[in-house]
Amino acid sequence: MELNQRVAAIRAQIDAAAREVGRDPGEITLEAATKTRDAATVRAAIAAGITVCGENRVQELTQKLDQFAYDGAAVHFIGHLQTNKINKVVGRVDLIESVGSQHLLEGIDAYAAKLGLVQDILLEVNIAAEESKSGFAPEEMLEAARQALKMPHVRLRGVMAIPPVAQDVGGNRKFFHKIREIYVDIIHKMGDNRGTINCLSMGMSQDFADAVREGATLVRVGTGLFGPRV
Ligand SMILES: *Cc1c(COP(=O)(O)O)cnc(C)c1O
After folding, report:
1. pLDDT in tens, 80-94
2. How far is the CA of 118 from the centre of ligand 1 (A)?
3. Most buried among 108, 143, 150, 172, by the most CB within 10 A?
4. Residue whose CA lies nearest to ligand 1 atom number 10
5. What is the pLDDT of residues 143-188, one digit of tens each?
6. Which residues lie with the beta carbon below 6 Å from any ligand 1 atom?
7. Superfamily, domain 3-221
8. Model-level pTM?
9. CA pair distance 152, 109, nearest whole angstrom
């Protein structure tokens, strides 16, 4: 299949999953996870209708930014961000989705202050408490949101998560449900401050339809669009 056919096919699956649960498909964005794909492939994806690209390695992000690969689309950072590389990402991407510690949150706020800008972010939750993954523990999320909302150079936009690799079809739906509960809880408890919180990023190639059924507004798809990574 051609890339534009794959974009259309995945878009159609998102729309169908949304309608199944009575959601408006227009409130869900398909983000292309473009790690390991070259600038030409990224440009082709944007030409095929992709409006958001997600990158998870700083060096790759920087390279492709320098090649103007993302022109015409928004760029998100979705990988593990080390504090010593904050300066390469803040102010260069539209959204940092993977803010999973207080230390990183403070670092981003401080660097954005230095640049005189406000950085949009999501808080990442380690929903299954996996040792190997970064992210706030579920019970830390409300306090992290409270902190983020107090920071003048950070704009909290929502929640992101990468659940465990599911062993069977539908295996992650329960995690998506829990992630959404955390997201909704933040919105409800933050009162007047919650204005800009409208992004729930969850679901990848194997499980994005279930993520949509459980309320995702942003799904991150790599192999489903571009084929296997080498
Ligand atoms: C690579 C990646 C994806 C996409 O994964 P696929 O299984 O290829 O769809 C989604 N989210 C993050 C954070 C990623 O690093």
Report:
1. 999 999 999 999 999
2. 26
3. 172
4. 220
5. 999 999 999 999 999 999 999 887 788 889 999 999 999 999 999 9
6. 33, 35, 56, 78-79, 162, 204-205, 220-224
7. Alanine racemase (3.20.20.10)
8. 0.97
9. 7
